[in-house]
Amino acid sequence: MGTNHNLDLYLVRHGVTDWNQQKRYVGHTDRPVIESELSLLAPLKQALANIEFDKIVVSDLRRCQETFAYLQIDGEPNTDSRLREMNFGDWEGKTYYELKDDKVYQNWLNNWEEHTIPNGDSGDDFKSRVDSVLQELLAEAKSESNVLLVTHGGVIRYIVQKYHHTTSFWDFPIKHGTAITLSLSFNEEKGEWQCISLSAVPSQESDNV
User: Fold this and answer.
1) Which is nearest to 174 in space by CA: 188, 190, 156, 151?
2) Does 163 fall in a domain?
3) In the UniProt record, does the keyword Hydrolase occur (predicted)?
4) Which of 61, 107, 120, 166 is deepest in the core (most CB within 10 A)?
């Protein structure tokens, strides 16, 4: 019998920014959180307060750094630019209504993994950098680990889709200032990590898989 490896991956989306409120694409543009909105994270702060994290990794963009500072989680964070949101290139700061008649944009919406954003990320670029972070974290995981990532909506959607295979990228709601917990277990027979449950933080009804 091999060692049983289980990991709880806490995925926190940063607090809201002005561009989020205006429904503008904000990828690598370094917008700060709206300070008056940070109090909305109080339930998340309370829910995470008593969890001991073996590893904390935070996107280098201000909105994630400021969110982590507000949460006051005990532990030394690692800053990693690979956890940035997609680079929306020419679409940064624009809204759906400004882009909806653009054929390139519509193609991207229909299949973001196969199309490249003008002067921004391709699907492969985005997935490969997020995957590289995950591979390092999973390789370092202890038999029982709690890992916290403070990152962006697109990153969280991709990670959830990767391990929770019934979830589509666009349909899974990720609210600002909330967290998703993926409980992963390493299947030695298949040689891969598998999701055994998904839940929201602060806690709601869990989705066991």
Assistant:
1) 156
2) yes
3) yes
4) 61
Q: How many helices (H) and strands (E) does the chain have?
A: 7, 7
What is the residue-averaged pLDDT of the chain?
91
Which tens digit of pLDDT belongs to each residue from 115-152? 999 999 999 999 999 999 999 999 888 777 899 999 99
Total structural domains in the chain?
1
In 13-60, alpha helices (H): 18-21, 42-48
Question: Rounded to whole angstroms, how far apart are CA atoms 200 and 207?
Answer: 9
In a domain? residue 1? no
Within the chain, residue ranges assigned H as helices are 18-21, 42-48, 62-71, 96-99, 103-110, 123-140, 153-163
93: CATH: 3.40.50.1240
Domain that holds residue 204: 6-208
